[in-house]
Description:
Layout: H1 2-35, H2 41-50, H3 52-72, H4 78-81, H5 89-109, H6 116-131, H7 135-165, H8 170-183, H9 186-211, H10 214-225, H11 239-262
Helix pairs in contact: 1-2, 1-3, 1-7, 1-8, 3-7, 5-9, 5-10, 5-11, 6-7, 7-8, 7-10, 8-9, 9-10
Amino acid sequence: xxxxxxxxGYFLLYMVFTIAIQVVLxxxxxxxxxxxxxxxxxxxxxFANKNILGMTIVSGLLTVLFLYLLFKIPKKDIRKEWKLxxxxxxxxxxxxxxxxxxxSLFSLLTLNADIENSRLITDSAQYYSSMxxxxxxxxxxxxxxxxxxxxxxxxxxxxxxxxxxxxxKPIVAIIVSAVLFGLMHFMAGGIILVAGAxxxxxxxxLLMYKYRSLWLCIIAHICANLSNFIYSKELFASSGLKIGLxxxxxxxxxxxxxxxxxxxxxxxxxxxxLFY
Length: 276
């Protein structure tokens, strides 16, 4: 139980710090707007929304730094604590196929869903690109393929999962870290994104359990986020194409999942069964 409480405690600390940073950045944006002569609550809110992508990037960078210092200052072995271990290329292929196929399924099945935060981020990227060509695209890539995967995996798999697994069954660590991973996406996309992120969190937890490498989880997370750049209502308006892709990704996901479960897990002195 102590491991569970410790893991949840770290998660709450992560969330409190992230929210605090976002509040501070919002205040800074309001001051910048005032300095630029922008007046009126509606205009200030619009200016803040246009810069939400920039604030998200800064918040993510500061969060990663905070988590690093949280373990570095007490002189803990971060490589060991977070399981920053190497991995086999074959395992990387399996992890990427598994995460990308599941993420693609979610994206295709929710293509018509209106997720407000995703729309705000897209609008913010377009705002930056209107000032400097491709600047918004670069920021999107930096946020979704570098900062977010690193920050979220360090927090959920590198810290929460490992704290819980030390004292409880690995399946408990997988489920709890997945549920928390889902809940942290509520403000970003409501119950739809919570459900999708929680299911994806189960996969990331499984990969952590099987391969003992946070690096592998981060790369798998990057592959999952690639779907944000691929699927759109315009490109996949055809129901026939959508159904065909859903079938392909379902088969791919199940095949890789069976492949992973059918292989023997690498034995180490800390190896444990999934349910014991």
